[in-house]
Records
---
Amino acid sequence: QTLPERKAKGIRRKEKVDEAAVKPKQAAGRNEVLNNLNETAKMFMEVGFNSLIGCVVYDYEMESQALVKSDDYNYINVTSWFMKYHRLAEKKRISALPPKPKPAPKTSEEAGEGSNEGGKEGGKEKEKEEDPDKTPEPEELTSAQMVEKILGERKERDAKAREEEERKRRERR
């Protein structure tokens, strides 16, 4: 064989492999791992979330004198993330519920149309009955509004604490 023949033999086109069709060995247990992670996350949200947030709030309040502006923003970012998560989880839970059954239509006797006693009162009762069927929309706040709200609450709490300290000082004198 000549050199060009050897080179021609060595140069062959590689077959193209569809990478999306090839599943790695790790993908076999992927669904099981994701399901376990989902169950663990649900268990944490049910059992450990309140204690975690309680600890964060406690630490935050105990160090309130030494806090700087960046600490406020970090705390607000953490709490706003959990608020957003809970809002999404609640929306998902509500959307999974079956639709509410509509109340059966009232007959003219039940509505009070046949007697003079029903009058305006019957109309008011009808309005009151329609209100419980409507689910109130949760207040939608942007993250900036949540930050302003939380900072405002903190300022009010700090102002009350200062007033209380000043009142105690005056009483001592």
Note: Residues 34-97 form one domain.
---
Amino acid sequence: MGESFSFAGTGSSLSVSSFFKIKDPGTIGSGSSVGYGEVYLSKEQEGWDSAVASVTLRETSQGVGLFGGPIPAGGGSFPGFSPYFSGVSILPNHWYELRVDYEHLGSQIGWEVNVNDYGLDGTTFVGNTLNFVDQTPDSIGLLSDSTLYGGFTVSQGGIAFVDNFSIRDDSLTGSTTISVSPTFDAQHRPGNAFPLGNLTEPLLSIDGGFGTSFPALEVLTEFSLGSVPAGAQIQSAQLLLDPDGIVSGTMNLQAFGYGADGLPALTDPAAATTLFGSLSVAAASSDEIAIPLDAAILNGLLAAEESHVGFLLKSATTGPFFAVHASESTTGMAPRLVLTYASETVAGDYNGDGSVDVADYTVWRDGLGTTYTPTDYNTWVVNFGSGATSATAIPEPASFALLALLGGVLAQRRV
């Protein structure tokens, strides 16, 4: 079962976000629309089978818009919002972050939605595309529920790729949970002439083997560790697998890991010598499989400045077998590495990313007079450049003038 969250009380907040790479929708005719991405908070782990508080980014002939609100189980009417934004463009082949900050406002849910452009490579922050703030009645009992889950959905017509889903509980200082997609996943066949298959199989099998007629089958996959900020400590970790059908027999499933580079190589399986975690998977189980991983070993990889972690998934039990969905599957979820980490506390780091930079000035500026004071500005100046390694120089007075001007321009785009 995945990790659950809850609001800590009035004034507390939860943040849910995911990154999406946009397809070219072409010309959108009158009355037509293209859905891009959606993130939500749900009262049940099944997500859309229950009540959700969701926000969808979409585009119609009217322009780019948001569609959201608290939706009861089974659908129906709800107190929602559907604004459109004139002059806003969603660019094909760009990566966008859709982030929703939910705030507990007593009997109301506070919503702040940001869509951020990360360019063609997904790593360079280009700018904020749109910002929207609203509040609605809590018609689904979200604020009082003690087990909330975050999730996302995508439209195959509008999205090419999805990555880096995360949920953050702001009542836990510096604690963030992220879900990382694999850089690759492959079928490993020990002793075979083609041990890594063709890398495009939609289903991957894990089989303990049974004599020469039924050789062992294993799964090899790697994940980037680049989303964990420098100085952060991983508190917990899980490897999630989406099985296809049921497990045949009870299996002792093992995850052996290694420091990796994100690329498949014939030498990778031999490097997987450290047991990161194991799980007894019950016979006839068709539920999502969550293998608990040793956080201390993962922190060791971070300390060694490994960019990726790889896993070789195998059965220690002879006989049982099952298949899991791979990245190429169109009917299930690829393996996901879920990490919860605590960021190093750095004075002046107002956006909690582990470093003090220009982005923190923006947070300070937007919260001046409510959350922050002029003294907090001095703290930011003194600590600029602290935390995660940064090549950004502290802005000179002329640069501050430019920042102030940009702040005025951005403020005009807020709705």
Note: Residues 182-342 form a domain with the Jelly Rolls fold (CATH 2.60.120).
---
Amino acid sequence: MTDINDLIGNTVKQIDATVTRKRTFATADETITRLKHFCEDHLVGDDYHQLLHIVECLEADVRSLAESTGYRRGH
């Protein structure tokens, strides 16, 4: 038989992990957006293209990780 305190404790841990994960991915989204704006506002030529490529790869990696954990942007 499951102890009610264990059940509550596990539920709280799951909620906390979900909230933390959402904050982490939301922060990553914000950071990527800021990096893209930085590229657009301050860089030109090869510097622009190189850093933008890095940011786009980072964005793809973050999106993939987020999707694998069940996080959907905006939720």
Note: The chain is about 85% helix and 0% strand.
---
Amino acid sequence: MLTCRENQVLNLIGRRLRCRQIARVLAIGESTVRKHRANICSKLGFHHTAQLVAHALRTRPTAAADIGNGPWQTLRPRECEIVRELCRGQTSKQIARQLRISHRTVEKHRQNAMRTLYVHDMATLMRLAEDNNGNA
């Protein structure tokens, strides 16, 4: 049985991310990613990383499930909160007033969320959140 973190690593391997990218998404070290990868191989009975990658690609969840189980879980609570409010049509300044923080802090949380999710524009971020039933 894989741990939650090992499932996250496996999911990201299925998205064709490299160790360095997985480490950034999960905010862990590359050596930790390699250790998780080795543990996954051991638990699933694989002897080569290529076998693991093939398995990850075969068992990769659909896009909607992928969002719920993948990088969305790695967002910090405040980043999720910011994304939810943006999806409700709030501006950065409105969110800042509501949360009693600087609008620049709101923008930084939004940037961090977009980087974590490998999203490059707000439209895609909104679409991903919508596909996730608003459960950012």
Note: DSSP finds nine helices and no strands in the chain.
